[in-house]
Design a protein that fits this description.
Helix content: 25-40%
Strand order of the largest sheet: 2-1-3-6-7-8
CATH topology: Rossmann fold
Largest sheet: 6 strands, mixed
Number of helices: 7
Number of strands: 8
Number of domains: 1
CATH architecture: 3-Layer(aba) Sandwich
């Protein structure tokens, strides 16, 4: 049985629940983590969550803009020292990612660029999937569901990815990056 972790960012609607319900129906074991503050995300990426470290795949159900992750915004008095107060990208994440051969599937817009993917791969990801542009929200969900459906059949990662991107032009915005 494949094990998934869904990391839920702010204001993503029902996408994470739709992914969870469908993935569980397909036979995946699913764990969810809601990001309450930016440091939750950084601690997860830094390998500080033993449960998530043992999962096969992490799905980021988040928003992205201009190649950066949109994280929860807090009242200025609540931020911890050195906690990011703005969207974060490569400059913040460099040297911070410690993964355990997980597949990363990112539904956030513009988060499928090669430099970001390579940062995750150099941090230990088996592979990274993300959209290179502003993907329509329903298409992002459809891509994720189709990919999970195919991947559960134990076909090769690249084959599951190809079937999921073939749905339409919007699902075709996703890219797959492998370890070298």
């Amino acid at each position: 049985m494949k094990r998934l972790g869904i990391i839920v960012g702010p204001e993503v609607g029902n996408e994470p629940e739709a992914i969870r319900q469908t993935a569980e129906y397909f036979g995946y074991q699913v764990v969810m983590k809601y990001l309450g503050r930016p440091n939750d995300f950084l601690q997860l990426l830094g390998g500080q969550d033993p449960l998530f470290n043992a999962l096969d795949c992490w799905i980021f159900s988040v928003h992205g803009d201009d190649r950066k992750f949109i994280l929860p915004e807090l009242d200025p008095s609540i931020y911890q020292e050195h906690e990011p107060r703005h969207p974060i990208g490569i400059e913040t994440l460099a040297g911070q990612i410690i993964l355990n051969a997980q597949l990363i599937l990112n539904t956030g817009c513009t988060l499928g660029n090669e430099p970001l993917a390579q940062l995750f791969i150099s941090g230990g990801a088996q592979a990274y999937i993300g959209a290179t542009d502003y993907v329509e929200g329903n298409a992002g969900l459809l891509f994720c569901i189709r990919f999970l459906y195919e991947w559960m059949k134990d076909i090769e990662l690249a084959s599951a990815f190809a079937l999921a991107t073939a749905v339409d032009q919007e699902t075709g915005l996703f890219r797959l990056y492998h370890t070298s």
